[in-house]
């Protein structure tokens, strides 16, 4: 069962439902791409250019986005190239990503910065992504969010146990010094909801970045970042 948060009446209901079962939340962990920032142009562009330069297929943007479920950039590149990649090749991808962010820009979704500031007063904040720490460094720096979190976890730190395995989220909880049961994980794909449930955390669907019709994998669905504190009973 999930509850959508899109008006004050719904928010009150969700706050009550969200906090009636788990302990009071001590931490909120966010996915990165599609949840904190809109990287839907720079990341595919970097993959497309890098894979083509390495002799791989000419990819379409939607193909790249669909491949995010595979895991880290290294795992994605290996899938499309059909071979293992060298560390220098993943370094080349990160360099291309940095160039794309400089050219196109990367920004937090509207309301994200204010929401993080509001949450920081009552809970620890973390970030766990299926991308690697190289992506994290480039994208969060470009978006001005690199200092907003108490713990950052990239999927390369828990490879090959990528989402929906709970390893990355559990590592974030460990670094934050909280239990998974007292943590909410906010993400923009059903895989994120599954990850949260496998860890024993509250699963929150972030519907502000793009339409997410199937939210059955989540406990809560929130339409705007600024509604998140109320939805989690943190106001």
| Major β-sheet strand ordering | 1-7-6-5-2-3-4
- The Rg value, from CA coordinates, equals 17 Å
Report the strand count. 7
* Name of the CATH superfamily of the largest domain: HAD superfamily/HAD-like
Give the proportion of residues in helices: 40-55%
CATH topology call of the largest domain: Rossmann fold
Strand content: 5-15%
Mean pLDDT: 91
Task: Describe, in plain words, how this protein is organized in 3D.
- The radius of gyration is 17 Å and the shape is globular.
- It starts with a strand and ends with a helix.
- The protein is built from ten helices and seven strands.
- The chain has a seven-stranded parallel beta sheet with strand order 1-7-6-5-2-3-4, sandwiched between helices.
- Helices cover 43% and strands 13% of the residues.
- With 235 residues, the protein is an alpha/beta fold.
- It folds into two domains: 3-38 and 107-231, HAD superfamily/HAD-like (Rossmann fold), CATH 3.40.50.1000; 42-104, Orthogonal Bundle (DNA polymerase, domain 1).
- α2 (42-53) crosses α5 and α5 (87-104) runs parallel beside α7 (133-143).
- Residues 1-22 have low confidence and may be disordered.
- It has helices spanning 8-20, 42-53, 61-66, 73-81, 87-104, 112-120, 133-143, 167-176, 190-199, 228-231, and strands at residues 3-5, 27-30, 124-129, 151-154, 183-187, 202-206, 220-222.
- α9 (190-199) links the parallel β5 (183-187) and β6 (202-206).
């Amino acid at each position: 069962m999930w509850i959508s948060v899109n008006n004050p009446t719904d928010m009150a209901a969700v706050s009550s439902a969200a906090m009636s079962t788990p302990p009071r939340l001590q931490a909120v962990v966010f996915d990165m791409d599609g949840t904190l920032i809109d990287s839907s142009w720079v990341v595919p562009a970097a993959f497309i250019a890098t894979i083509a330069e390495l002799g791989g297929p000419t990819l379409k943007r939607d193909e790249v986005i669909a491949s995010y479920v595979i895991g880290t950039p290294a795992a994605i590149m290996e899938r499309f190239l059909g071979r293992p990649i060298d560390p220098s090749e993943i370094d080349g991808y990160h360099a291309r990503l940095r160039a794309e962010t400089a050219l196109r820009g990367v920004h937090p979704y509207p309301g994200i910065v204010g929401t993080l500031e509001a949450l920081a007063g009552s809970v620890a904040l973390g970030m766990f992504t299926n991308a690697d720490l190289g992506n994290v460094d480039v994208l969060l720096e470009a978006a001005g969010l690199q200092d907003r979190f108490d713990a950052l976890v990239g999927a390369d730190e828990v490879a090959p146990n990528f989402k929906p395995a709970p390893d990355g989220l559990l590592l974030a909880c460990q670094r934050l010094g909280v239990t998974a049961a007292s943590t909410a994980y906010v993400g923009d794909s059903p895989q994120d909801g599954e990850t949260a449930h496998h860890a024993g955390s509250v699963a929150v669907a972030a519907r502000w970045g793009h339409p997410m019709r199937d939210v059955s994998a989540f406990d809560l669905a929130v339409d705007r970042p600024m509604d998140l504190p109320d939805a989690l009973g943190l106001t």
